[in-house]
Write a structure and sequence with these properties.
With 1017 residues, the chain is of the alpha+beta class. It is built from 21 helices and 44 strands. It has a five-stranded mixed β-sheet with strand order 5-4-3-6-7, covered by helices on one side. The radius of gyration is 46 Å and the shape is extended.
């Protein structure tokens, strides 16, 4: 059987005619004619079935048949000059060489298109073929006119620079001006295909160097500093290699000193003989670091030769994949076609050969390594039994010498490593489960009820007569209970007497400790000695820069003596590159109690002062560590004489008469769309969501909430006469006494709606200096005879007569608030008060060690970090237990004063926590992986935990209402019984009076009769 009959070929194989890609078999005699039709048919999808000629419409295939090249002329009425030049070249030379032009009009109207076409001696596309014209414009990327694109016989692009070809060669000597269309790879694609070019270990002249990640972009290791999936080399995805200039690197070292990444390697760089040093990226850290540098010229030449060989290999593979790179001409193609014509296929039976596998021996060796070989001789055991016992019933027991005793682990934080034990057992009959007494080590709350009973239906028959018995009982035991409380003789009846035998309470952290790793400690004798870290913020978009403010550690009497005196306070910017001295110092006239970065532009910092004023600083990229600080020689000498730390003064300071009367303790930025109405009577979302943030809230101990316009301040920041004042302020007062309310924290309420579905934009939560929680509205309106009530609700359950230390929203549950006081912390749900519930979802047990700060974990929804007055850190994990802290860690020997998590960047890689203490030290810790990564369905479990707590709170609220109703019923019954007794008693009194009157009348009558008888005697 022949593959094809002789003489029957595809057009691509026909030796006597040009090649064709249609693939339809044809005879040699018809190859040229069919090829012409097939070739011209390739233009029909581009131009349509017909074109416009001088004598009317013509068919596309017929008009372009036999042409050597077809030009697509994109032009308009404005291109008359080049059109005339092209018409002259077409008429005199190009038309005779088989060149045809198709005009594609780019005019706006059909009249203009006709004006352009009247002097053109070639074909044109109909003006109404808009879809085809748009497709051509998009396909050949037409950005400007005139443009001439030359196509070959099969529609392939010969050149897109036809305008320049006509101008340079109007006679067509180089027609059809075909350009090299060999595809190639960009430099970025070559680097991606090369992959890692790290050298083998042990090579000479190589050294591992450490480079800060922020310098990857200047060195050319990445194209973009921000990591992106669309950019191959961005963020921490580095190029395989790059080069650095020797002289520029040494100049940088001389200028920056030890702050430069190249300072530790300046000797090797200086000793290098060449002008460029090669840097290679090694993700495996074969030489100790990710970046490998060549230190000798020999190593440079060796590695460059290896890299060039790999580049050439990549290019060869690319060209081979496209079928480019082989030689040969028409003779070789003809020989191959002739050989293919004479192929004869025979149907023969297949010959079976011996099976051969190249990996057979390796597989056999691998299986043998994993097979347990019996090295002991097998035992022979003969079991005999008396004939009389055959068929007798047997009873097997599950007890024996292999009985395994599995006790539960006492420590809930200890993960027991489970091991598998393979033992042989005999089949037994079906068994049943029975209960027995065992020791349970699982921690259980003392108030847990295993069989909850509702006492209201049970005690429904009890009347008011039982109240007297309860009163007598309470009266009898009240004196003894009061004496026991005063003498501290109360005991816990649930306590195990010997539970704490042999252990002492040190007052520090618990036994279960976490593995917090401290990586930096920032302190400076000149700036932080004798002060406490009041507030900490991380520099936005930076993982190794943070800012801390400091206040004096003074007693109340010392503060009274210094009150009213102006002094200097500092906000220090610290860098991981230099932990011995601050990177920059922000000078303030008063102590800075709180500060925040401006969300829209990180170069601005707004801070609240102890005088009640607000200050604004403007920072540069060098101050924030984004760029190197440039200094001339004179400024450098003056700075060395005065101080090595650059100082920055504030740009704007608010008017003290219109500011707070006490220290500013909280700052809250409002959303960008918020726009305040006149005098703060309301708010609306008029601004763009992507626009700049305009307003922010402040609160202080004077009970005032102020709203400030930051955008208006920025517009007048260079105006020396500008007076910065709040645009609106309110005074929070207690409803019972009317006195001012001291506040210490504030949170804005996002996405709240009323009963009608209207969005509320003026609500906020605040906390008082007595631990209470407030829900307020700064746009509340008063009546004609009453003041506006800015405080809508007050929650007093958390009142401890001490200030609230922290008030934060959960990053995973926006409606859950964390409030931390000295002795306990609370979890609030911000919309339960609408249903009359003023209880928190969760309240921790009181502790003997006071809290100082509290923050949510940014990656785990069930973890809270609490700072202690002893310098320790309590970590509460609600997915583990909720009656006490799951883990504790020692941080410092002084009380913790502030805490802040790094909340940008990749938090799953290195989650950092900055902790400030009362001694002016700022500690940076790396959180261990078990406190960073969520465990299983932790988010769902935490949501269910909060739902259960909400159900519990609602249940107690319902029981409270039921008990209140029951109390009213009992009191009503008692009142009715008392009224009936009073009525009966009054009736008895009236009857007694009548009897007494009748007896008195009878007595008087008898007395009169006796007197009459005595007179007669």
């Amino acid at each position: 059987l022949k593959a094809r009959s002789k003489g029957e070929q595809t057009h691509a194989e026909a030796p006597d005619g040009p090649g064709c890609n249609c693939g339809v078999p044809q005879r040699r005699a018809r190859s040229r004619a069919h090829h012409a039709v097939c070739t011209m048919a390739a233009f029909a999808p581009l131009f349509g079935d017909s074109l416009k000629g001088g004598e009317g419409d013509v068919e596309t295939a017929a008009s372009l048949e036999g042409k050597e090249a077809v030009g697509l002329y994109f032009a308009s009425v404005t291109c008359k000059e080049f059109s005339a030049e092209l018409a002259k070249a077409y008429s005199e030379a190009l038309s005779a060489k088989g060149f045809e032009i198709v005009f594609v009009s780019c005019d706006g109207t059909e009249e203009e298109a006709g004006e352009s076409l009247k002097d053109m001696p070639w074909l044109a596309m109909p003006f109404g073929s808009k879809a085809e014209k748009d497709a051509l414009v998009e396909k050949y990327e037409v950005q400007e006119v005139p443009k001439l694109v030359l196509l070959g016989k099969e529609g392939e692009v010969l050149t897109v620079n036809g305008v320049s070809k006509i101008t340079e060669d109007p006679s067509g000597e180089g027609f059809p001006w075909q350009e090299d269309q060999t595809p190639t790879l960009s430099e970025e694609e070559v680097l991606v295909r090369m992959g890692s070019v790290a050298p083998e270990p042990g090579e000479s002249g190589l050294k591992g160097v450490f480079i800060n990640s922020k310098n990857y972009l200047p060195l050319g290791f990445v194209t973009d500093a921000e990591e992106s999936d669309e950019i191959p080399f961005s963020g921490f995805k580095l190029k395989p290699y790059t080069f650095i200039d020797k002289e520029k690197t040494l100049t940088e070292v001389a200028k920056m000193g030890f702050a430069s990444d190249w300072d530790p390697y300046k000797k090797e760089i200086k000793a290098f003989a060449g002008q460029q040093l090669l840097l290679m990226f090694d993700p495996e850290k074969t030489y100790g670091e990710k970046i490998i540098m060549t230190t000798t010229e020999e190593a440079y030449n060796r590695e460059m030769e290896r890299i060039e060989a790999k580049r050439q290999e990549v290019m060869d593979e690319f060209l081979a994949s496209l079928g480019i790179g082989g030689g040969g001409g028409d003779t070789a193609e003809d020989d191959e076609a002739a050989a293919e014509e004479n192929i004869v296929v025979r149907d023969l039976p297949r010959e079976c050969k011996e099976w051969v596998s190249e990996t057979m021996e390796a597989t056999r060796a691998e299986v043998s390594n994993f097979t347990v070989q019996n090295i002991r001789p097998p035992m022979q055991v003969m079991i005999t039994r008396a004939r009389m016992h055959f068929g007798k019933a047997c009873k097997f027991s599950d007890s024996g010498e292999n009985l395994q005793n599995c006790r539960p682990q006492k420590d809930p934080n200890f993960a027991l490593q489970r091991k598998e034990l393979e033992i042989g057992i005999q089949a037994v009959k079906e068994v049943h489960t029975c209960a027995c007494q065992t020791t349970w080590f699982r921690p259980v709350n003392k108030s847990t009820q295993y069989s909850p009973a509702h006492f209201l239906p049970r005690d429904a028959g009890l009347g008011y007569d039982k109240v007297d018995e309860l009163t007598e009982f309470l009266t009898a035991v009240s004196v003894s209970v009061e004496e026991a409380l005063q003498t501290n003789e109360t005991v816990d009846i649930f306590q195990e007497e010997f539970a704490h035998l042999g252990s002492e309470e040190t007052g520090d952290v618990s036994k279960a400790s976490s593995n917090l790793q401290e990586i930096r400690t920032f302190t400076d004798v000149g700036f932080t000695k004798g002060k406490r870290v009041e507030w900490i913020e991380w520099v936005p978009n930076s993982t190794d820069m943070l800012v801390s403010s400091y206040c004096e550690n003074l007693h109340f009497c010392d503060k009274l003596e210094n009150m009213g005196r102006v002094g200097n306070s500092s906000i220090l910017i610290w860098s991981f590159q230099d932990s011995l001295a601050p990177h920059c110092n922000l000078v303030a006239p008063w102590e800075v109690t709180i500060f925040k970065f401006y969300p829209t532009d990180n170069k601005y910092v707004v801070g609240g002062l102890s005088s009640g004023q607000l200050a604004v600083w403007k920072l540069s990229d060098a101050d924030l560590g984004y760029a190197l600080r440039e200094k001339n020689k004179k400024d450098a000498i003056e700075e060395e004489k005065t101080s090595a730390v650059p100082s920055i003064s504030h740009k704007v300071l608010s008017i003290i008469d219109d500011s707070h009367r006490k220290a500013v303790v909280a700052i809250e930025w409002l959303p960008a769309p918020i726009e305040l109405e006149r005098r703060g009577r309301g708010a609306s979302e008029k601004n763009s969501k992507d626009g700049p943030v305009k307003y922010f809230l402040t609160i202080a101990g004077d009970g005032q909430v102020m709203i400030w316009d930051f955008q208006a301040m920025l517009e007048s920041i260079n105006d020396a006469d500008h007076q910065w004042k709040p645009v609106h302020k309110i005074q929070l007062q207690r409803q019972d006494s009317g006195t001012e309310m001291g506040c210490c924290q504030i949170l804005y309420c996002h996405d709240r709606y009323d009963d009608k579905g209207t969005k509320l934009l003026t609500n906020f939560f605040a906390s008082t200096e007595e631990g209470e929680l407030i829900y307020g509205d700064w746009a509340a309106q008063g009546g004609e005879d009453r003041k506006p009530e800015f405080m809508k609700q007050m929650f007093t359950i958390s009142k401890t007569f001490r200030p609230t230390l922290s008030l934060e929203r959960s990053p995973f549950f926006p409606d859950i608030l964390l409030a931390v006081t000295d002795w306990a912390f609370y979890l609030w749900k911000d919309d339960l008060w609408k249903e009359g519930i003023k209880e928190p979802l969760f309240q921790s047990s009181y502790t003997s060690i006071t809290f100082t700060r509290g923050v949510w974990s940014p990656t785990r929804p069930s973890v809270i970090f609490l700072g202690l007055a002893t310098g320790g850190l309590d970590i509460w994990d609600f997915s583990d237990q909720s009656h006490k802290a799951s883990l504790s860690a020692p941080v410092t020997s002084l009380p913790i004063s502030s805490m802040s998590f790094l909340r940008h960047g990749d938090l799953t890689v290195d989650q950092k926590l900055a902790i400030g203490d009362a001694g002016g030290n700022t500690h940076v810790h790396v959180i261990p992986k078990n406190l960073v990564k969520q465990a299983g369905k932790e988010l769902d479990n935490m949501r269910k935990f909060l739902q259960r707590e909400e159900q519990r709170v609602r249940y107690f609220q319902d029981r409270k209402l039921e008990l209140g109703t029951l109390k009213e019923q009992i009191e009503k019954q008692a009142q009715m019984a008392a009224d009936e007794n009073a009525e009966d008693k009054g009736k008895t009194t009236v009857d007694q009076d009548k009897a007494d009157a009748a007896a008195e009348d009878l007595y008087q009558k008898l007395q009169a009769e006796c007197l009459e008888e005595l007179k007669t005697m």
